[in-house]
Amino acid sequence: MKPIESMPAPDPRNVAHWRADFPILGERVHGRPLVYLDNGATTQKPASVIYAENAFYRHGNANVHRGVHLLSLRATDAYEAARAKIARFIHARRPEEIVFVRGTTEAINLVAQSYARPRLAPGDEILISAMEHHSNIVPWQLVCEQTGAVLKVVPIDDTGALDVVAYEGLLSERTRLVAMTHLANALGSINPVEHIIASAHAKSVPVLLDGAQAISHLPVDVLTLDCDFYAFSGHKVYGPTGIGVLYAKAALLEAMPPWQGGGDMIRSVTFEKTEYNAIPWKFEAGTPNIAGAIALGAALDYVDAIGMEVIAAHEAGVLAYASGALQAIPGLRLIGTAADKASILSFVLDGVHAHDVGTILDRHGVAVRAGHHCAMPVMQRFGVPATVRASLGLYNTREDIDALLEGLAQVGEVFGR
Ligand code: PMP
Prior knowledge:
Layout: H1 15-20, E1 28-29, E2 32-33, E3 35-36, H2 47-60, H3 70-89, E4 98-101, H4 104-116, E5 125-129, H5 138-147, E6 150-154, H6 164-170, E7 175-181, H7 193-202, E8 207-210, H8 222-225, E9 229-233, E10 244-248, H9 250-255, E11 266-269, E12 274-276, H10 290-306, H11 308-327, E13 332-334, E14 344-349, H12 354-363, E15 366-367, E16 369-371, H13 376-382, E17 387-391, H14 398-414
Parallel strand pairs: 3-15, 5-6, 5-7, 7-8, 8-9
Antiparallel strand pairs: 1-2, 4-10, 9-10, 11-12, 13-14, 14-17, 16-17
The chain binds 4'-deoxy-4'-aminopyridoxal-5'-phosphate.
Residues 103-105, 133, 135-136, 181, 185, 210, 212-213, 233, 374 line the site of 4'-deoxy-4'-aminopyridoxal-5'-phosphate.
């Protein structure tokens, strides 16, 4: 029987070599080479990730934690090895602190329902910020409705940066949890998470970080950060959709009741009483996304082989080039200009709806996102219905930005700007 081996590590030399690892970048759209600038929505996958998923189904498919046969044992080993890999990638103390979920959204809902709900009393407060994705707003609204707790929102300034003074003021005796994004998806702002965590901990308030965007752009070290929960999605870090991670400190997971019931999350079941499994399996009811977890492990191997610092430095160069060029376009307004930002270029053009810009760019082969980016309160804060968002990944180059600029010149022609 063939082992589920992985592909050779990527060539870490430079972006041209990285690009060659992503088969989809060879596609053409509307007869033009694809310029993919929608990484904030989802990233493309390197061949090693596609191979890992394919190899699992070709050579190793079986359910985990159940069988005594070789394939099942092997699938279990590969699934648990992926968990250990993820723990190493974000510097968790133990693999048991890694819970596999569908993505960031499910991770935050799990914390809202299993951690927060049993602890919240009427008048207690959950503190979020004005730059959050709906996934880090709505689960808290639901749990507030269920418990009588109150959602408090830290404002942001005109650059899209967190108002840190307001944050300190809003951290109160009633605050039970702080839930903030690490990197804002509609603005690119990087939050001062060390400071956020230190202030919250000084008042014994735990902190959840939404790492959906940060995970592919910044080194993440949950041990040094000392955050209590960290959520991210595999598909935003060059892995597959349908798999994501909730990191939580082991003591918190131990104290939390299961969220969903079913197979795998139990130790024993009778009609009178069910004994739950140990962490993290207590939170993984039902057959998990085994191939997805393994392929996410391959994605993190890929990122590691290049190095997150190398990726961040490359992306910062492209971001600076793009920011300068976009700001020189008359009538273009960048939304999100925080001093500390990464990877996101959100903008509006005078007199042209974002959707029209997105459609013309698409005809030019340039994929961007146009809309509210699941952050409607951010749009309200800046008084715009929608923005155009170009978001970077490790394979983007200045040439991609030049293609974006050419596309925008065409928008200008079409709309007589
Ligand atoms: N939070 C942020 C900051 C995001 O950018 C996203 C995805 N756009 C999410 C949460 C939700 O991620 P998912 O849809 O993968 O659960």
